[in-house]
């Protein structure tokens, strides 16, 4: 039996760029002004997209759908994915998703993935705003699918199985796993290719209904072209149970948030005396720099 | 009273450090809560593994020994962990934040619908009062972790779901023998009950585990030495400080050229660029070629004999003094003041 290509869903997240928190993103009290951080395509999700694109290169007929959960503006990363070669995308968005921890998030995403019914789900290992690496495995569990984490390369797909190289802490392994399956991709995997000018032209007017309502200029043109419509799915579209979403669906609660206060660069001079070294170590421990 | 359970990773017949560190932490939490500490060891040819676990305070060791259980694969290990947790009903379950633990723990937490906090840097017992209902909780596990790229520290709790699950990275907790002759009970896990046939869907085509490589780029703490450190022997002091703080050792080009350190540790224009949370520059003058590779560090401490070394302009703290005097004091006062 030969099947024409594979149906791939790439899970992607729009995240604040926490990697380079510069002075502009600092409030006067030394804490981070999250609103000032640029919103970006989560880096490892781009590695995941590249793996999907490389399957599409090798197996004609493969389609790639970007699935993201977030506020309306997260449609930006669906377009970004399309500029690089994804076929379409779905924005999972609903006020009832707000406050979800990884488990409630995974529940919603797994329902959306079920509706899309792919052969392969590929996600980044973790997102840089939380660094939990939980959503991939939890989506796999909720769908009762096997998971292959820390993938560095999808080597081949043959006879219903994917052959995948996994990066481990001190080495690697190559495993073969039946489809459908969930794969999470490491930052050590190849970087994502850049935008393709042809796809930018084709998809630059791709918009969600909400975005269309906000700007009416190309409304008429878009009515006629189905590929320029980015679907928005809410709770009703995925038949989710309200109690499993948001705060009520989240076993973990945030009890307290402490902002790490960065001090201005002002050199403090210390001597080698015991008292100086001891107070320095105490300070480093208390502000969580060490320990 | 519900117990605490630690998933123990085994490599070549040895329990890995992070699992022993978690047993040490688990033991002190168990003493505080007045419950027992359980360990779960899954692998192949691990008869007698309990001898490595009892001294770290385990009261009960669950053993799952089967040739299909090594090397680690997600589904069978998940099934056993879920089965043991359902039977034992622990209040807390701890996993190493390793490539195994970070693959396994989320899958287990999803199946049990219990919350999981990744990469905790501290675990404490505390109370909680629910704002809306006024409901009071005693003896919750405070799971404390940095988030948002290290810009915030969050305390996470799981008030209503058990077990309270957390992963912790290697080197974050201390490993300490509890009692050399601490005795406990061994229980063989009921594999026929826990495992399913379709847990074994993977086949391994290749597997190579290399020796630990030097990788200073991913270290959040770097203790770096320059030519001013003086000798390869003096670099051992930096290694000691790095080990105590859970960091890596870096070096300037001059130190590498002098043969004090390997090239893989070189920071700067012709080495690697690093952005750690803490960079301790020992005997480094601060040439631009070096500082270009580390000036984005969140905090810089310089230790130098020369009060006018250029590195001091970049440093948050500059200690004027001898490496041989200052570094041992840093180790001493860190050990005295850390939890």
Write up this protein.
- The complex is a heterodimer of chains A (291) and B (339).
- Chain A has a nine-stranded mixed beta sheet, sandwiched between helices.
- In chain A, helix 3 crosses helix 4.
- With 291 residues, chain A is an alpha/beta fold.
- Chain A is built from eight helices and 15 strands.
- Chain A has one domain: 3-Layer(aba) Sandwich (Rossmann fold), CATH 3.40.50.620.
- In chain A, 27% of the residues lie in helices and 27% in strands.
- Chain B is an alpha/beta fold.
- Chain B folds into two domains: 196 residues, Rossmann fold (3-Layer(aba) Sandwich), CATH 3.40.50.620; 117 residues, 3-Layer(aba) Sandwich (Rossmann fold), CATH 3.40.50.
- Helix content of chain B is 28%, strand content 29%.
- In chain B, the strands form four sheets. Chain B has a seven-stranded parallel beta sheet, with helices on both faces. A five-stranded parallel beta sheet of chain B has the order 15-14-16-17-18.
- In chain B, strand 16, helix 8 and strand 17 form a beta-alpha-beta unit.
- Chain B starts with a strand and ends with a helix.
- Classes of the chains: A alpha/beta (291), B alpha/beta (339).
- Chains A and B meet through helix 3, helix 4, strand 7, strand 9 and strand 14 of A and helix 3, helix 4, strand 7, strand 9 and strand 10 of B.
Strand residue percentage of chain B = 25-35%
Q: What is the ordering of alpha helices and beta strands of chain B?
A: EEEHEHEHEHEEEEEEHEEHEHEHEHEH
What is the CATH-assigned architecture of the largest domain in chain B?
A: 3-Layer(aba) Sandwich
Give the N-terminus to C-terminus distance of chain B in angstroms: 26 Å
Number of domains of chain B: 2
Main β-sheet of chain A, in a few words?
Answer: 9 strands, mixed
Q: Give the class of chain B from helix and strand content and strand pairing.
A: alpha/beta
How would you sum up the global shape of chain B?
globular
- Total domain modules of chain A: 1
Question: How many helices of chain B in DSSP terms?
Answer: 10
Helix content of chain A: 25-40%
Name the CATH superfamily assignment of chain A: HUPs
Report the CATH superfamily of the largest domain in chain B.
HUPs
> What gyration radius of chain A follows from the Cα positions, in whole Å?
22 Å
Q: Do you know the CATH architecture of chain A?
A: 3-Layer(aba) Sandwich
pLDDT average of chain B, as an integer? 93
Helix content range of the residues of chain B, please?
25-40%
